[in-house]
Amino acid sequence: MLDELPAGRQPITTEIARDAGSRKRAYDLIRTEAEAGRRAFVVCALVDESNALEAKAAVAEAERLQTEVSPN
Q1: How many Å apart are CA 34 and CA 70, to the nearest integer?
Q2: Distances (CA, A) of 62 to 7, 37, 43
Q3: Residue 26, C-beta contacts closer than 8 angstroms, at least 6 positions apart
Q4: d(CA 9, CA 6)
Q5: Over the stretch 8-58, which tens digit does the pLDDT of each residue have?
Q6: 60: Cβ contacts below 8 Å, ≥ 6 apart
Q7: Angle at 42 between CA 39 and CA 43, to 5 degrees
Q8: How far is CA 38 from CA 30, 34, 70, in A?
Q9: CA-CA distance, 29 to 70, in Å (whole number)?
C-alpha cells in the first residue's frame, strides 16, 4: 500500500465542472497543460450512457473530447 507521494511529486488538484462555462475553462486548462507536456484526467460518473441519470458517460465523453476539445 502506498501511503506517501513519490519524491518530487506535485500535489494533485481535483475540480468539479458542473456547467458549460466551467467545463470550457477546464478543457482550456487541460489543453494548455497537455501542450506543456503535462497530463490531466477527465473523470466521468458512468462508463455507458444511462437514461436514468443525467451524467456524462465516459465512452461518449472520450469520443467528444477527441473530436471537439482536443483533436490533436
Answers
A1: 10
A2: 31, 20, 10
A3: 15, 17
A4: 6
A5: 888 878 888 888 899 889 888 888 888 898 888 887 766 666 555 555 677
A6: 49
A7: 130
A8: 9, 5, 14
A9: 11
Q: What is the pLDDT of residue 52?
A: 55
Name the residue with cell 462555462.
21
Q: Name the pTM for this structure.
A: 0.58
Amino acid (1-letter code) at residue 68: E
Sequence letter at residue 29: L
- State how far the Cα of 39 lies from the Cα of 3, in Å rounded to an integer: 22
pLDDT tens for 39-52 read 888 877 666 665 55
